[in-house]
Amino acid sequence: MKELLKTQYGLIRITRETLFAFLGELPPEKLRADVPGFGSGSIIRTHIHVADCYRYWLGSFAFGQKRADFAFATKEEIAEADVRAVRDRFKRADETADRFLDRYDGRMLESVTNEVKWQPEWSTTPLWLLTHTETHEFHHKGQIAAMARLLGYEPPNTDLE
Question: Any coiled-coil ranges, and where (predicted)?
Fold first, then answer.
């Protein structure tokens, strides 16, 4: 099962590279521009949010750390971020995903319990954490593509290679 899930995550990384290549062509001010109607506000902030969520759910939550101990990106980090900085955050997210898949190999349906902001103890399975983070990335990838279009840029197809 671990090899299948690692292969799946590898395919997600390939689609992410297509998005990174496209975003690398946009002016930094466009990446940081607020686009009304999107929860995270800008392309760069949205992309950082995705990487942080991988690190939080597959790292901190799954490894029993408390939410308060996790360092989400600060406003200053976001304000200074460029595509290279987001790539660096995703490199850490990829390392977290690899560690997660190794730890939960053969145990993807076991219960994992930790605190969340909406309650002191919440349980789910490693498979659900992985599913959530991967679908979360694709949800926001669609938002990033929509924001780019609203800013006057046509993104490439990032879903199928």
Answer: none
